[in-house]
């Protein structure tokens, strides 16, 4: 003999070819089709998430800027200084000032773009005591 122990039931190792079932090739094709459908959805979801996070970051930055602008006006400084604080945070943002009782409020608004084409309006308001009190 050849020095190997005899094997029972089944083909010798390495000597038999694996059988190909017709369902195996169809399953392989369906998996590729599922991936082709799912991949764009996953990419679009990721891009949307990144866009929303960017808009949120822009909103936080704008909120911080209007709070600074309201404090600037509350101290009695010029409106131009408050506008410069908002413009540093977001050059495209418009702002308005309102006063009531002892408060001065600054509201800024801008548009954030998500996925390059969807415009989402963002608005932030900050108030401070008039006269720096």
Automatic annotation (TrEMBL):
Region (Disordered): 1-27
Keyword NADP: no
Superkingdom, natural source: Bacteria
Keywords tagged on the record: Membrane, Transmembrane, Transmembrane helix
Residues annotated as domain TadE-like: 29-71
Matches recorded under InterPro entries: Rv3655c/TadE, TadE-like_dom
Residues spanning the membrane: 35-57
Biased composition (Low complexity): 1-16
Pfam families (alphabetical): TadE (PF07811)
Protein name: TadE family type IV pilus minor pilin
Organism this protein belongs to: Microbacterium capsulatum
